[in-house]
Amino acid sequence: MSQPWLGRRCGFGKRGLPKPANLTFVPVDLEDGRLGERLVEFGFDLDTPSFCSALGVMLYLDRQAVDALLGFASSLTAGSEIVFSFAPPEDDLQGDDVRMAVDAAERVAAIGEPWKTRLRPRELVECLTHFGFSDVFHLTLELAQQRYFAGREDGLKLSGFEQIICAIV
Predict the structure, then answer these.
(1) Residue 120, CA distances (Å) to 91, 96, 125, 152 in order
(2) Do residues 123 and 86 make contact, with C-beta atoms less than 8 angstroms apart?
(3) Which of its termini does the chain have fewer beta carbons within 10 Å around, N or C?
(4) Strands 163-168 and 81-86
(5) Are 81 and 52 in contact (CB under 8 A)?
(6) Which of the four pLDDT bands, split at 50, 70 and 90, describes residue 4?
(7) Cα-Cα-Cα-Cα dihedral of 119, 125, 126, 130, to 10°?
(8) At what angle do helices 63-74 and 121-130 cross, to 10 degrees?
(9) CA–CA separation, 25 vs 169, rounded Å?
């Protein structure tokens, strides 16, 4: 299946970079529950440890689709990993993060992309543990600020309305 526009859309064409030989674009609807099946159709090897990235995705999925995606990732070969971002509910946020989250949610809802799932970090860690992930790491706002923004003289700081978790099978 050749879709040359995908390479341009993902930046390969714009930057003059060759498409890696091991990269395959797979059209999939994450809410139909057929992720594993679709990946296998396009040559995905379920027996090879894999890295799954769902950055900027989870909040647009309904809870059933989130669970299906995490369930699929947990079924992969030992050593596989998933990293994803998520948006906690407003009552878990503080200060400017509340306003930023509300504004962002309203903007994307207005263009037909509402946030469907907002999860608390503790709830996600418990969910990942239930699915059998052996190692779960939540990059908390405080830790991210300390690691990546400490000592900045321009006052730039991280927003907490979208956070990151990674988990290893």
Answers:
(1) 10, 18, 9, 29
(2) no
(3) N
(4) antiparallel
(5) yes
(6) very low
(7) 120
(8) 50
(9) 24
Tokens of 58: 């989870």
What pLDDT score was predicted for residue 56?
Answer: 93
Residue 20: C-alpha distances to residues 10, 12, 27 (Å): 12, 9, 18
Task: Kindly state the tokens that stand for 117.
Answer: 């799932």
Q: Which two tokens stand for residue 82?
A: 């998933």
Distance from C-alpha of 85 to C-alpha of 58, rounded to nearest angstrom: 7
Enter the tokens of residue 91.
């009552």
> Would you say 102 and 74 are in contact if contact means Cβ atoms under 8 Å apart?
no
The closest of 140, 147, 104 to 120, measured between CA atoms, is 140
* Eight-state DSSP code of residue 149: I
